[in-house]
Design brief:
115 residues; four-stranded antiparallel β-sheet; 0% helix
Length: 115
């Protein structure tokens, strides 16, 4: 089964940036889609950004213009560049891979935006 490991989270001040990375144990080129989700305390997990196999991206309205999802050329990493961070972006961020055989999730990385 695919292993996904997120990294790059941390504590930042409002307006600052972070780049999250998701490393897959195998190539993600065959994946239907890769996505970043987040879950804040007391809230449901929500989709933040996704990138389909053809490269088409999709973003939650709350992050459009601030976050960018991308894949690297080696074929096993997905990134989430987060700019102009806000306190409401505070959450655990998860990476998800969707293939023809189902979904795989990472363990999550904490992002805290606070002054």
């Amino acid at each position: 089964q695919e292993q996904l490991v997120e990294s790059g989270g941390g504590l930042v001040q409002p307006g600052e940036s972070l780049r999250l990375s998701c490393a897959a144990s195998t190539s993600i080129f065959a994946a239907k889609a890769m996505a970043w989700y987040r879950q804040a305390p007391g809230k449901q997990r929500e989709m933040v950004a996704s990138i389909a196999g053809g490269g088409i991206t999709n973003y939650a309205d709350s992050v459009k213009g601030r976050f960018t999802i991308s894949r690297d050329k080696t074929g096993n990493r997905v990134y989430l560049q987060m700019n102009s961070l806000k306190p409401e972006d505070t959450a655990v961020y998860y990476c998800k891979e969707t293939t023809a055989w189902g979904d795989s999730w990472g363990q999550g990385t904490q992002v805290t935006v606070s002054s």
